[in-house]
Amino acid sequence: MQEALASLLESVPALKEAWGRISKQKSIGERALDYVQKIFPIAELNELYGDYSSFTWAAEMHNCEKKCPGVGRCPTHGMKPSVCIDEKGGRTIYVIKFARCGSSEQIQRQKEIECQITASKLPKTFHEKTFENFDTKGIEKSIVDAKGAAMCCLQDGASLVIAGDRGTGKTHLAAAMVNKRIEDGKVALFVSVPELWDELRETTSNGKGFETMAMVKSVDFLVLDDLGIERGTDWVGERLYMIINKRYQEKLQTVITTNAKSPSDLASLLGERGDRIVSRLKEMGRWCTVKGRDYRGRRRQTVFMEK
Asked: How many angstroms separate the Cα of 18 from the Cα of each of 3, 9, 32, 64, 265?
């Protein structure tokens, strides 16, 4: 039989060449082991657990990110096969397991961020607010300084009060901080102070006000927007002091925007407990006062002129 095959191959050169290529090809088991040994050099063939074809398929998918068609068209829906070491019956085995690929993880993370932004109660108007799209071209130095202070606070964890004129970008900066904190994996909450008081008044009677207060006092990162707009009654002052004092004690980062011109101005707006509240805020971090023309109005004017 061997002699007949050899004679046939000698008589047909093309067949001999094809047979040579085939005979040099590795078996599926050998190819599977080659792939596993690139990752775990000491692996042996009898330690591969499962069908050899699953290992060769994982080898083909190893660098799939370079030619990714998108998660929507991915044959494994964004789940990438890879070799993992495991144990079965007291012996080491190598198995194929699935984990999210880089593209899938990015999409999943984006979905999580979107959900967290919604949960943060950040108004839709501010969902896209970032430091990058806070345009400082041609605006007053105090506003530029406030942007720098906000960015520094994200680095060192200090709290921040952004005070001053209406329309100077205070809420944009606070929203940018919320978005960055969420991007960093923190739980953040954006609260309009007048709306918070309305909610607490409505929910105190049914017992849910306690839950709202607990959330505001304990969340990782809190923005209190438009503090001082509402008259500083005893009821308002008591609840605000409870929030600020608790966050001060727990060293939780807090950002406040206010139209007050100075710490003493804010203290007077907050009523009887104003001095104590402002004193706590000063100990917690930085105070920035911004002055200038309406930032929003200038942005609208710029867009109109560009068009």
From this structure: 18, 10, 24, 31, 91
Rounded average pLDDT over 149-166: 94
Which residue is associated with the tokens 């207060």? 213
Residue range 120-306, CATH number: 3.40.50.300
CA-based R_g, the chain, Å: 32
Provide the 10 A C-beta neighbour count for residue 88: 10
Q: CA-to-CA distance for 244 and 222, rounded, in angstroms?
A: 10
Long-range contacts of 182-187 (CB under 8 A, 24+ apart): 182/113, 182/116, 182/117, 182/120, 183/113, 186/220, 186/221, 187/116, 187/219, 187/220, 187/221
Report pLDDT digits (tens) over 290-307.
Answer: 987 665 555 544 332 333
Position 256 scores a pLDDT of: 97
DSSP 146-191: HHHHHHHHHHH--EEEEEESTTSSHHHHHHHHHHHHHHTT--EEEE
Contact, 285 vs 159, CB < 8 A? yes
- Segment (H or E) for 59: helix 52-60
Entry pTM: 0.65
Is-contact 153 253, C-beta < 8 A?
yes
